[in-house]
Write a structure and sequence with these properties.
mainly alpha, 1 helix, 93 residues, globular, 2 strands
Length: 93
Amino acid sequence: MKICGLCRKEIEIDAYFTRKTVCPRCGGDLHICLNCRFYSETSHNKCLETKAEHQRSREKANFCDYFVFREGGTKGAPDREDALKKLNDLFKK
């Protein structure tokens, strides 16, 4: 299962996935750091791949040769928002 890192909706990727491919639901770029399995909010340059070049924007398409679409969704900012929402819901009672 692949999930867009911008809209958090499940998407289907075909064999013609390129740097210019966009999400059919939100229209955002898909070849972005937020969708990559190497993306890590806590790592240096926010990337676990040490040879990858620094990317200025994590939400815009890039030319990274190490990009591999993350299975099961994204980590980082969207997960953080979900976690904060769950915490707030927990303490609302």
